[in-house]
């Protein structure tokens, strides 16, 4: 020790910094009993760090967010006015500014750090290299003076040899640092480095050195007192970097040979003593592949990663800084470092920097409010944070660091495990973070072996195979919030949660599927044919709910009845539970997968035949599809649970049905060839749809190999006497069972079924009582009781059916808004032949047109439209063509008498054009030629099956598209086959479903009243999101809308309050909104990051070339140059200097100059020819 010890204790210290490091210093000061003072910019007025200090004072509000913290005059003024003894600069900002250290000294304030003379010598990279040479410390080849001009930079770079490294002389944290590989890149990188350096450090001095490829970055922590004593606190490995900014650091640097480590320690002490260093500092070295160390710079300040040195040495470096500044020597009792030997290194420590950067998007910084923050602490974990808490607003103005997670363990792999556990335990929502990336780094074998180097991240692409945070809780409440705001008119009514049907699970079940699996399709159906018993197909799960409530019943409620249905329907034939409109509406309206529904029903109904409705070449769609789509759909359906395929064609075209029937037969499942019923066979005036018509078609279907024939009476046109006559005639001709499907829209449904039963029908479609009648099927309970004790007794139990009926009755109230206004039977159906399901849809369409009083007239036009189309079978999609034509006629004052003249020049609805073109098939009796010509105009009609003419769908290409777009890499081949076929059938609907899933996650487990209407204030719901993972969600409050029509909703999730913002779509929003750039439009120039415009290089009307810099965006102290995506002319610039922009915001638009060039070229050619 040299010199007399002079100690002056501090009473009050100002910290000239912000965020995490400010809080770290406040805590060190508080433990020493020193009063703390913070300063803050206007952008930081709500920041947490200022509340951690004893006193807090604002900086100059006229200064920008960075400049405020670089304002030496204001900081000194605050320090003097508050009577502080010392200032701690932290890291960054003014921490390495010698003018600041001098200003403190001039005003009698102690600067906690080295003096300006040491800063000038060692804080400047150029000066420190000169001293290193004097101290016989090896350095990287380069120049030892600052470069001011780009021409000089080019000359030196050529001498040193590319690649070169540009460094801000006073830089740190990777700022002002660039690697340049080619001379043509030098100018751009040099100017950006200068600008960054000027903004971050107040100095634009740049120097150049040779760039070493892939070295390790090792640094040594030293502390020196005012009396010439210097010790090192061992080393840190900081090789894991991105853009020269450290990401993960650890101590000790165990992968460097011990002799090299000792060489670096000795060089560090030698260099520090040469310059007379005092306080804490860091000496940084690069170690090349041959383990040769090169000194690169000294940081005369505390480092971000000082924490790992503290953990392995058990020395508080920040307190040591303060005590040294007070005058204590290292050997004093207060500091307690009497010698180098007294510093011991125990175990290993790792620091991971959790930032608001998106590693999946080139680490662009994210901004916004942190809606959820849960830390991962516990044994061996230290957390140093400054911005990480629920409600914190992350701005684009400062460093993206949220929290530093520091682990400590006896072994390096133990420290790795602790770090991974802490990161995985963290929950940060509202902003993107780099946590998944950090976990990948820690898990990588190269990191765990200590072999990382400075370009490890850039050269290891698998680090970017990120596990995406599910963020389930937030997505769930965003969905509920949207339902609360946008689905309710007034307060949500009270609904009870489901109560499942009572069921004795101990009773054995042997159902129709068991017999089918034993006998096969042919054997089982022939067995039915010989029995007197009337078999029943339960339509409740498909056509009943489709007809009554627009197919809105959710899988949760259907599957809730599945166990009971399996037991109670063991004497029935089948349960129609899938296909038809249930397929697309599951995706479209219920945001659930029909395949998952089928999987659940199959699992819960193992003894029951599950039946689906297949629209022949339309599959489960509304138009013809290529044959390979229909074939693949049938295959997948059979593989995943369908036992019975009911196949029909909307025009009764057997040719259209042939291919689907053949494919279904190949699966070994039961195939029902289906005839759509229309007309009236009991009417002696019926000349088109006669008994002979139905017999002929039935025999054709039987000849194709169908195991049974179904009569499908969608419009409830089959009268009881006609049913007896039709069934009686058909069973005499057929050698397979006959099935009847009808609706009860006229009130005659039960009578029709009973007359058909009397005539010998084998199977009938019925619905559970509380889901029957009106537009649905006749009541199963009524028919079962009517036949009880007769030879046609169904064998179904009254009490069991009643139990199912009670279940559906309880849940039906939730679906009331989706039900039609049809309150009683309607025999007008016989007159107008409008199918029951379409009747309610047509009324809704007319009401929406504002003409409900004209419904009577439109019903008449429906009848006329049917006749004009050729008196066709009316079932989806042909019924839609009839309805669309009726409304079209109403809107255009057309009728059957004037349509050929008044309607000759009009453009007809798509469905009508599609019908006349033959896209729905060929109608029995052909098309009315005159109207066909008027509708099609110059379009040529088809003369054969549409599916035959369509090119095969590229299902493999669809799979690749979906995997790429929605990251389905982990899905099995069979699941991808389901997804591909869904996309092939309904591309837009399926993608909307996928995007809804990404936005809100899985919403299928909600109670249905929550799914449709959200929650009432104070209402709670429980949601299982995984095995043993339940969310208890309670809706608390909703704000009034802001000027953009957004409302803030508060929820409790497992007792913690969370908020979400929801757009009120019912409000008219008049405030201006910023434009968004279209990523697919090269003329749109969008902001790649949220930030501030720091430079604009072009003006409107200026011609630019592709990749020409247009402007510079600054975010969190990093600058990004935005370049032109194409040659063109700047048409419009939407921002100017200092504009704050959001990510994706449209900042400029370009006009392509291609047309102008073509005109000039054409003119030149013309002039040449003329000459």
Describe it for me?
The chain is α/β, with parallel strands linked by helices and 1171 residues long. Helices cover 37% and strands 19% of the residues. The protein contains 40 helices and 42 strands. The strands form 10 sheets. Strands 13-12-9-10-11-14-21-19 form an 8-stranded antiparallel beta sheet, sandwiched between helices. Strand 1, helix 1 and strand 2 (35-40) form a beta-alpha-beta unit. Helix 6 (150-160) crosses helix 7 (183-201) and helix 24 (720-733) runs parallel beside helix 25 (749-759). The longest helix is centred in the first third of the chain and has 19 residues, at 183-201. It is elongated and about 125 Å long. The N and C termini lie far apart (96 Å). Residues 1154-1171 have low confidence and may be disordered.
Structural class based on helices, strands and sheet pairing: alpha/beta
**Spatial strand sequence of the major β-sheet:** 13-12-9-10-11-14-21-19
Q: What is the tally of beta strands?
A: 42
- β-strand amount: 15-25%
Distance between the termini: 96 Å
Mean pLDDT: 90
**Tertiary shape:** elongated
Task: List low-pLDDT spans.
Answer: 1154-1171
Biggest sheet: strands, sense, closure? 8 strands, antiparallel
The helix content is: 25-40%
User: Radius of gyration from the CA trace?
Assistant: 39 Å
Tally of helical segments: 40
Short characterization:
With 1171 residues, the chain is of the alpha/beta class. The protein is 37% helix and 19% strand.
């Amino acid at each position: 020790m040299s010199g007399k010890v002079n100690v002056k204790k501090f009473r009050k210290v100002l910290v000239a910094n912000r965020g995490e490091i400010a809080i770290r210093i406040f805590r060190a000061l508080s433990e020493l009993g020193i009063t703390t003072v913070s300063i803050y910019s206007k952008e930081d007025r709500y920041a947490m760090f200022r509340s951690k200090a004893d006193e807090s004072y604002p900086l100059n509000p006229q200064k920008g967010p960075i400049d405020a913290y670089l304002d030496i005059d204001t900081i000194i003024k605050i320090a003097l006015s508050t009577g502080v003894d010392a200032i701690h600069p932290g890291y960054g900002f003014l921490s390495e500014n010698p003018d600041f250290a001098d200003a403190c000294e001039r005003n009698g304030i102690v600067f906690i750090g080295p003096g300006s003379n040491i800063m000038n010598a060692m804080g400047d990279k150029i000066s420190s290299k000169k001293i290193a040479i004097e101290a016989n410390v090896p350095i990287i080849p380069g120049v030892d003076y600052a470069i001011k001009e780009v021409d000089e930079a080019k000359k030196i770079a050529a001498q040193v040899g590319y690649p070169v490294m540009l460094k801000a002389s006073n830089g740190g944290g990777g700022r002002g640092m660039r690697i340049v590989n080619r001379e043509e890149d030098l100018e751009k990188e040099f100017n950006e480095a200068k600008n960054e350096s000027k903004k971050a450090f107040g100095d634009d001095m740049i120097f150049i050195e040779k760039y070493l490829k892939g070295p390790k970055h090792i640094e040594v922590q030293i502390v020196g007192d005012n009396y010439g004593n210097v010790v090192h606190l061992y080393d840190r490995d900081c090789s894991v970097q991105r853009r020269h900014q450290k990401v993960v650091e650890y101590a000790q640097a165990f992968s460097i040979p011990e002799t090299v480590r000792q060489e670096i320690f000795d060089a560090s002490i030698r260099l520090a003593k040469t310059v007379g260093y005092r306080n804490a500092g860091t000496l940084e070295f690069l170690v090349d592949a041959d383990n040769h160390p090169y000194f690169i710079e000294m940081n005369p300040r505390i480092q971000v990663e000082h924490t790992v040195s503290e953990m392995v040495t058990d020395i508080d470096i920040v307190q040591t800084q303060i005590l040294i500044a007070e005058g204590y020597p290292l050997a004093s009792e207060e500091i307690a470092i009497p010698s180098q030997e007294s510093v011991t290194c125990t175990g290993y420590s790792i620091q991971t920097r959790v930032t608001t950067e998106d590693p999946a998007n080139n680490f662009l910084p994210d901004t916004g409010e942190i809606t959820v923050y849960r830390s991962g602490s516990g044994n061996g974990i230290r957390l140093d944070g400054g911005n990480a808490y629920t409600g914190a607003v992350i701005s684009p103005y400062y460093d993206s660091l949220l929290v530093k997670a520091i682990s400590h363990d006896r072994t390096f792999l133990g420290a790795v495990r602790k770090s991974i556990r802490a990161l995985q335990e963290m929950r940060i929502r509202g902003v993107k973070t780099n946590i998944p990336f950090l976990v990948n780094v820690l898990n990588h074998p190269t990191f765990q072996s200590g072999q990382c180097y400075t370009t490890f991240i850039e050269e290891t692409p698998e680090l970017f195979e990120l596990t995406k945070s599910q963020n389930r809780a937030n997505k769930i409440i965003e969905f509920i919030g949207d339902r609360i705001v946008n689905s309710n008119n007034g307060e949500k009514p009270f609904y009870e949660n489901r109560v499942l049907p009572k069921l004795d699970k101990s009773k054995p079940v042997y159902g129709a599927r068991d017999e089918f699996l034993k006998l096969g399709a042919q054997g089982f159906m022939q067995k039915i044919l010989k029995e007197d018993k009337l078999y029943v197909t339960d339509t409740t799960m498909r056509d009943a709910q489709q007809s009554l409530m627009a197919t809105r019943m959710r899988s949760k409620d259907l599957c809730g009845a599945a166990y009971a249905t399996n037991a109670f329907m063991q004497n029935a034939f089948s349960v129609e539970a899938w296909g038809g409109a249930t397929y697309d509406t599951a995706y479209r309206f219920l945001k659930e997968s029909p395949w998952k529904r089928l999987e659940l029903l199959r699992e819960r109904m193992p003894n029951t035949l599950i039946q689906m409705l297949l629209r022949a070449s339309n599959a489960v769609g509304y138009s013809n599809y290529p044959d390979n789509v229909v074939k693949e759909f049938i295959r997948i359906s059979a593989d995943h649970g369908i036992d019975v395929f009911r196949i029909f064609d909307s025009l009764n075209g057997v040719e259209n049905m042939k291919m689907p029937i053949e494919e279904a037969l190949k699966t070994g499942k039961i195939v029902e060839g289906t005839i759509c019923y229309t007309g009236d066979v009991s009417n002696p005036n019926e000349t088109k749809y006669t008994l002979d018509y139905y017999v002929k078609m039935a025999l054709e279907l039987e000849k194709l190999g169908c195991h049974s024939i179904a009569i499908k009476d969608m419009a409830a046109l089959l009268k009881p006497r006609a049913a007896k006559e039709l069934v009686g005639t058909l069973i005499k001709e057929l050698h397979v069972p006959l099935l009847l499907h009808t609706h009860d829209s006229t009130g005659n449904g039960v009578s029709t079924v009973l007359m058909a039963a009397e005539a010998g029908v084998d199977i009938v479609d019925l619905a559970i009582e509380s889901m029957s009648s009106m537009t649905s099927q006749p009541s199963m309970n009524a028919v079962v009781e009517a036949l009880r004790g007769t030879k046609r007794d169904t064998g179904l139990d009254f009490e069991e059916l009643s139990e199912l009926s009670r279940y559906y009755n309880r849940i039906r109230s939730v679906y009331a808004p989706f039900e039609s206004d049809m309150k009683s039977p309607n025999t007008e159906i016989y007159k107008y032949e409008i199918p029951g399901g379409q009747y309610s849809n047509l009324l809704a369409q007319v009401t929406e047109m504002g003409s409900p009083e004209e419904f009577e007239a439109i019903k008449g036009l429906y009848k006329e439209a049917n006749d004009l189309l050729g008196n066709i079978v009316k079932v989806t999609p042909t019924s839609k063509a009839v309805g669309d034509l009726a409304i079209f006629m109403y809107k255009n004052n057309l009728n059957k008498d004037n349509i050929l003249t008044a309607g000759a020049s009009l453009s007809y609805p798509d469905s009508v054009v599609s019908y006349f073109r033959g896209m729905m098939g060929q109608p029995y009796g052909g098309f009315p030629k005159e109207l066909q010509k008027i509708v099609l105009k110059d379009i040529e009609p088809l003369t054969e099956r549409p599916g035959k003419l369509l090119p095969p769908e590229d299902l493999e290409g669809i799979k690749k598209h979906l995997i790429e777009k929605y990251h389905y890499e982990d899905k099995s081949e069979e699941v991808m086959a389901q997804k591909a076929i869904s996309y092939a059938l309904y591309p837009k609907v399926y993608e909307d479903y996928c995007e809804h899933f990404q936005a809100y996650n899985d919403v299928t487990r909600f109670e249905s009243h929550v799914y449709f209407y959200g929650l009432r204030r104070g209402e709670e719901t429980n949601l299982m999101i995984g095995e043993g993972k339940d969310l208890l969600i309670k809706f608390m409050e909703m704000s009034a809308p802001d000027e953009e029509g957004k409302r803030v909703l508060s929820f409790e999730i497992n007792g913690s309050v969370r908020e979400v913002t929801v757009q009120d779509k019912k409000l008219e929003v008049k405030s201006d909104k910023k434009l968004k750039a279209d990523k697919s439009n090269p003329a749109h120039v969008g902001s790649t990051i949220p930030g501030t415009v720091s430079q604009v290089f072009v003006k409107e009307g200026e011609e630019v070339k592709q990749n020409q810099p247009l402007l510079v965006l600054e975010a969190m102290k990093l600058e990004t140059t935005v370049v032109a995506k194409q040659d063109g002319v700047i048409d419009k610039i939407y921002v100017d200097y200092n504009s704050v922009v959001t990510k994706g915001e449209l900042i400029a638009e370009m006009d392509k100059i291609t047309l102008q060039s073509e005109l000039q070229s054409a003119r030149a050619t013309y002039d040449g020819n003329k000459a």
